[in-house]
Batch of 2 targets.
Target 1
Amino acid sequence: MTKRDIIILPDPRLRLVSEPVATVDAEVRQLADDMLETMYEAPGIGLAAIQIGVPKRMLVLDVAREGEEPDPLVVINPKVVWESPELSAYQEGCLSIPDYYEDVERPQRIGLRFLDREGAAREIEADGLLATCLQHEIDHLNGVLFIDHISRLKRDRVMKKFQKQARFAEKG
Ligand code: NI
């Protein structure tokens, strides 16, 4: 496994729509393992492939609490098949938008179809933090960030902050 660099706002690649994975082969499994290592190292609870610059429809997550056994999940070509009408709010953050957190409301429960690390078709019902995390990561596959779900005023403010930081970094 190799730790990869995580791309940061305002990197334009974060706005790409990722392509479906054609075949779950050794290369895809290697990518999944690299994504898991990068996520654990960060540390974070979810990571989409585009966050390491790879525009493929896959994500990894682990919502096990501190002190619990790790519970890694590799999700390839996810498709949300239903959403609950009830919403729940969580304070979200993103490894590509470091040190910024804001409450986001999303469907509390979802049904999800996807391929796992072995390429097997799976269907799960997710709720709570797992449902939120899955929806946050699936948004990444469509070029959507959690700051797109907050007020325009707050989004403009955070965009400006990161644009300024990027300019500063360029100048060195
Ligand atoms: Ni994110």
Target 2
Amino acid sequence: MSMKHLLQIYVKPYLLRMAAGLVIKFTGTIMDLFLPWILAYMIDHVIPEKNTSQLLYWGLVMLVCSFLALAGNVIANRMAAKVAGEIVEWLRHDLFEKVMYLPSAGVDGWTKPALISRLTSDSYNVHNMLSRIQRLGVRAPILLLGGIIMTLNLDVALASVLLCLMPVLAVIMWQVTARSVPMYTRTQEAVDGFVRLVREDIAGIRVIKALSKTEYEKERFDVWNRQVVERERRAGMTTAILNPSMNLILNLGLVLVILAGAYRVQAGTSEVGTILAFLTYFTIILNAMLSISKMFTILSKGQASADRISQVLESEDERQLELQIRNWMEEQTEASEKSLPQTKRYQTEEAPFVAFRDVSFSYHPGKPVLQHISFSLKQGETLGIIGETGSGKTTIAALLTGLYQADSGQILVGGKDIRKQKFGELREQIGIVFQNDTLFEDTIYENVRLGRELEESQVMKAIRAAQADEFVREKSGQSQEQLNIRGANLSGGQKQRILIARALAGEPKVLILDDSSSALDYRTDMELRKAIRQEYSSVTGILIAQRISSIRHADHILVLEDGRMLGYGTHEKLMESCRLYQELYRMQTGEGRMP
Ligand code: ADP
């Protein structure tokens, strides 16, 4: 179903071009088929008559046929390559777009390596399939059928030798193909695991070295490496039977044909040229059979890949999710219009700019990560979120940006329920720095701008506010525009400042910093907060931190433990009422410690 779906969408617009290519290919192939026949005719009928003009005429015909065969095949192959390339380019484009729009829960579900392999090896397999079908899909069957017809025409008795051998050939090919296809599938699975390991090891090479895990990882690598080679070898061992045994049968057949042919020539029932043509057709037929069996392998591989790709393409992305949410919202408002008191209550409140109203959420059903979270910020206010790792702080940031959907409750951003906003509209208002965000291999300036249409002054202002101008100047003596980031040539704190500058540069209404000043020294952290307050005074901030010093001046502070609100209020209020907050404060400032 899915493969069919893929063909319907992506191949349909190319059907005309494909058909034209196939007609050209057909012509070229027919020419190929006629060549041995003409040769036989010349040897048996033209040469014995010693008529030069006849000889020249047939020679010319052969030349023209050869040329047409060459031209037809080359043109058709080029067209096929172009069509296959264009289809897969389009498919990859859509697939990439899909992956970009996948909701975070969807990415978690597919896993990143699986998405990467769909964009790389799977689309390569589909490309291979499309080009192979066009190149051989018509040619091989015509050569096979045409070859048989030609041999039957030339000499029925000799053709019967061939026809007796063909079932044997077919059985061998079928057996080998049927066995090797699942073997190659298993090899591909091993390769996937292998690639995953290589990716992780190269990305994490520092920690592997630092923890002296090098030997352990080498062993793990060797296990996968061996497995890939072993599976490849097994598949190779099976397919290795194919070509030599086909050759054996070919040669056997040739011997039989020559033996039978010699008798028939002597008996005057056949001629030398016919035997010669026969041998050529025999080779053509055999090669056509081999091509067909290879085509089956590529087809089954390509089909598996096409299925995998279309599963992703057919999965739901944020664009459909948006629609669903909107429809759901409409139903809700209709329902709530009937129960007026509740709507009235919200209407009388002063509308907050950013808020959670009794929000609960779980990544997996039954394992709640956030429970009954509420907070409310007016425009320009700041919320600090503090709590141990795993308490759900990052999850709050992910819900605010609509990366995941809350199970219950209401989330407001920009004074509006986020379900009433398009994802793009929502995210435009937000500047966010996640933990371990990526810097790209480009200049610092471009890393801050990130392809957005921003004024230079906006970018520079953000770099200054994020306290990044200082080290940029120190580092380089070059201008910021020129300084390239390559791999690991920045410290943790420097990276964080560039990421913060990136979030600020778009002049967001809401700024979310997820533990993104943790690598800054106290003074820089303070300067940063001061600069944001002064330069971006209307921004509503959400600061997630481990250090109380980073958030103690926030207008509201939310203390989280295991996804529950343990406290909510100002620093002073929490110091009075929240035991966990007091404990954290004491630990971090050293106050009240026993001597
Ligand atoms: P914090 O930011 O406070 O360290 P998180 O919000 O990152 O906490 O995580 C809260 C809990 O949710 C943790 O138990 C974590 O294991 C789980 N979690 C985080 N992200 C995912 C995810 N994508 N899928 C499933 N569980 C997750």
